[in-house]
Amino acid sequence: MPGTPAPGTVRPGGRTARVREAVLRAAGDALAADRFDALDLTEIAARAGVGKTTVYRRWGTPGALAADLLADMAEQSLRRADTGSLDEDLRANARLVVKTLTDSRQGRLFKALIAASLCDDQAAQALHRFYEVRIEEWSGCVRDAIARGELPTATDPHAVVAAVSAPLYYALLNRGYTLTDADADAAARSAAAGARAGVWARSPE
User: Fold this and answer.
1) Is residue 1 part of a domain?
2) Contacts from 165-174 at CB under 8 Å and sequence distance 24+?
3) The domain that contains 44 carries what CATH number?
């Protein structure tokens, strides 16, 4: 039906908000402990202590539930750093990425959500939106650096922020590497150096 919100996308209040919080917490716990394809709405309802009819009516599918979980994670994520230095801001971003990916719960949760995005369109779209929100939040660091004259004026802020986290995700997911703060610092230095060299300067239209 045109104009009808996708399941799980309406932001509720009161008791409905408490139900959503309980269900999303249960879904996050389940994903952190198991695979996306094992996500069962009836089991989630039992974990959350709510009626399964409520869960099926509100979310309908595991993909919609994963999408709402990602939307909630984006809303709850920390705001960007604002240190007055590009190097320190990007370092803070990289360390936050490493802290999240190495956390005993959050790390497993992100792996499960990334896996979900490969087999479910709703989860994939939600994951894309999650990273769009986070990259836009941290791109302010790059815009500030441009305004201070630290970077070429044509620098693409989104590309610089993406360049910070890209090698960290690659090391974790493709190489199975255990990330450290030293890896975070190296990724931040590399992105900052590339930005200063004009690697991510956009060509004139």
Assistant:
1) no
2) 165/93, 165/94, 165/97, 168/94, 168/97, 168/98, 168/101, 169/97, 169/101, 172/101, 173/111, 173/114
3) 1.10.10.60
CA angle 29, 103, 91 (to 5 degrees): 140
Element (H, E) at 185: helix 181-196
Angle formed by the axes of helices 106-117 and 86-102, to 10°? 90
The residue among 25, 46, 73 that closes a domain is 73
pLDDT digits (tens, 9 = 90+) for 148-194: 999 999 999 999 999 999 999 999 988 989 999 999 999 999 999 99
Query: For 147, what's the count of Cα atoms within 13 Å in the CB-facing half-sphere?
Result: 8
Q: What pTM does this model have?
A: 0.84
Asked if 88 and 21 sit in the same domain, the reply is no
> Could you count the other beta carbons within 10 Å of the beta carbon of residue 83?
14
Q: What is the CATH number of the domain that holds 138?
A: 1.10.357.10
Return the structure tokens found at 131. 């990273």
